[in-house]
Amino acid sequence: MSKIRAMSRVLLAALLLAAATANQDMTMGMSKVKILAKSGEIQFQRMLGNTSMLTDPVKIVMEKVVQMTAAGQEVATSTCSGTSLPFGGSTLNPMNMFKTFADKTFTIAAKQAGQYIPNANNIKGSMISFSANLGDAVGTLSISATLAEQAGEVLIAGEKQPLKMGDMKFNMELSKWKWCGAAGAANAAAFLDLYMKVTSKVAATLKGSASDTAAPVAFDLGDNITMSFSKKLKKDKGSWENMTAGYPKMDGDLFVLRFPRFTNTIDYDPTVAGDEDDDDASGDARSGDASGFKLSVVVTALAAVVAYVAL
Questions:
Q1: Where is the signal peptide, in residue numbers (predicted)?
Q2: Burial of 152: CB neighbours in 10 Å, binned 0-12, 13-18, 19+
Q3: pLDDT of residue 16
Q4: Which helix (H) or strand (E) covers residue 19, if one does?
Q5: What pLDDT score does 81 carry?
Q6: Where are the domains of the chain?
Q7: Fewer CB within 10 Å: N-end or C-end of the chain?
Q8: What whole-number distance in Å separates Cα of residue 152 and Cα of residue 252?
């Protein structure tokens, strides 16, 4: 009996690990989102009009993070202490750069419905949270992606972003960062540049003015989908402040965000939205959400194992 219980505990641990590292998806209104455990890629799709056809997915993935000097130069490896580490088949320079997320596995939590969207005036949505420890010599990246259940508005320090049902708001937090050089020292890290790769049906083009202080920087991604980047950030849970002038910006097919050196955390909030009216959308019933079934199977199996182990 003791051997059986020991095996059951091993099975329980394996099921918990599988649940935490499995891909997750969700639908709301005319939108569908999928999160990949491998790389943390976010895929966003919209339904075409009143059909069940989906647009090509907009794929959003973190490309790399680089520490920069006050002069805007990449921090030299020699400025950092430590030893280069193998990381998912790629080389991690000591603290100053994380080169690729492609082979990094994110821990993904189960979808949660009815969650309040941060900075969105009591708007609720379905949320999937996921995170990755990038290594003891780097830091931690945490992301939550939320599909809005209703219309409203995101308001961040005077910046307004309309939200409709099915629009995706995602919140990013960087924490526990290991910096190169002492703060304020010559050639030490003063900024952290985060590169995001966005793959869409057409090349992203700027919508409106990047200098409008009352709105985020918006880009047309085709298929009536817009991605908006706030010019605001929150350092160490303080007040919202402006990002460095000229950021966010495009660099080829990459979007670059520049964050100031921080002690504990940086918080940042982009948005992906559909341009057409969603008033006739009917929530999850419009397209099947397979994640609900997959999750229920895992939960049922976990419950059975837990009940047996408790005997």
A1: 1-22
A2: buried
A3: 37
A4: helix 2-21
A5: 57
A6: 2-309
A7: N
A8: 33
Instruction: Extract the tokens encoding 245.
Output: 């002038």
Residue 122: the pLDDT is: 87
Looking up tokens 């690990």 gives 17
| Distance separating alpha carbons of residues 261 and 192, to the nearest angstrom | 7
Averaged over successive runs of 10 residues, the pLDDT of the chain (311 residues) comes to 47 40 88 94 89 90 92 82 38 59 90 91 93 85 95 92 93 92 89 95 89 90 94 96 95 93 96 67 37 30 33 42
The conformation of residue 41, written as its DSSP 8-state character, comes to -
Closest CA to 291 of 36, 1, 8: 36
Q: Is 158 helix (H, G, I), strand (E, B) or coil?
A: coil
Q: Which residue has the tokens 């003015």?
A: 209
Q: Using CA atoms, how far apart are residues 249 and 172, in angstroms rounded to an integer?
A: 17
Q: For residue 308, what pLDDT is reported? A: 34
- The per-residue DSSP string of 198-256 comes to EE-SS--EEES-TT-TTS-EEEE-STTEEEEE-SEEEETT--EEEPPTT-SEEETTEEE
